[in-house]
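Feature request, filed as a ticket because there's no other form

It would be nice if the structure record came with a short human-readable summary line next to the tokens. Right now we just get the raw output. Example of a typical job, pasted below so the devs can see what we mean:
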Amino acid sequence: MDSSAAGAVPAPAFSPDEYQQKIRQVFAEVGKVVVGQHYMINRLLIGLFTGGHILLEGVPGLAKTLTISTLSKVLHLHFQRVQFTPDLLPSDLVGTMIYNQNQSEFEVKKGPIFANLVLADEVNRSPAKVQSALLEAMQEKQVTIGETTYPLDLPFLVLATQNPVEQEGTYPLPEAQVDRFMMKVYVDYLKKADELEVMRRMANMSYVSEVNPILTRDDIFGVRSLINQVQISETLEKYIIELVFATRKPGDYDLAEFAQYVQFGVSPRASIALHRAAKAVAFFDQRDYVLPEDIKEVAGDVLNHRILLNYEAEADGIRTQDLIEAILRKVPIS
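Raw output as currently delivered:
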């Protein structure tokens, strides 16, 4: 186990300017393998540098798995991919006790959850018991096997994918688990020029692109420490709270047309996630202070999966994105 997992967080080894340069190198290095998808890479790095799990939703073939596996190489992290299926068992994810005949005793066989980056592919295809096992790991950064609890190696991040097209044989994720994802990111189709480049690369069956590690584990914690030092004014902190409360009671914010559609607004985890993500955006933009634009940039990804609309909203074609856009227009910065 590294020192960070034991609770001792290393001090930053480089200056903010040097780390920001390294982050730009990470984008360039991942770009050797993954064409386009800059937005997805940005959100994955925000999650990594702020300790937030990411839920990716998009149709198959958009390089979600490739991006995550490539990112793990560039960041020199242990990566594991788990294909979630209806017959997956909790022990397939976290591990189990096996009997060692030579020593006449049980020993622990750890599962793929014991990694730094865990790709939960099509996470909504497994039943409640598997989701419960994943939930403990996501929230507590630990796993229980038998009667023993094992801490997970840090940094630990779950990057889950969902296919929005095929819903047969899927299980809706529990609200408590969805809320533990810092952001839900919608991955869209590539632009024409990017898809042309992908086609040309893949048509060349001898094409191989190697990537080089740019950051170490200690560097990741160094960046986290610097992001934590980014300043956010009290005015903007109150602005975050107003955005959060507007999802719960739209009528109080001159959004009466949405009040009848909201079943539940976002939880307090949303305000924490907005605060952390806005700081990360500011740091990526080489600033040591947060602007209102930073908060607005990540608001959609942080809030969209936490707002629960009722059946009436679905019947009237109202989406969570519509409510979020209206909130960002209406709620003032005071």
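Something like this underneath would help us a lot:
The first helix runs from residue 16 to 31.
The chain has 14 helices and eleven strands.
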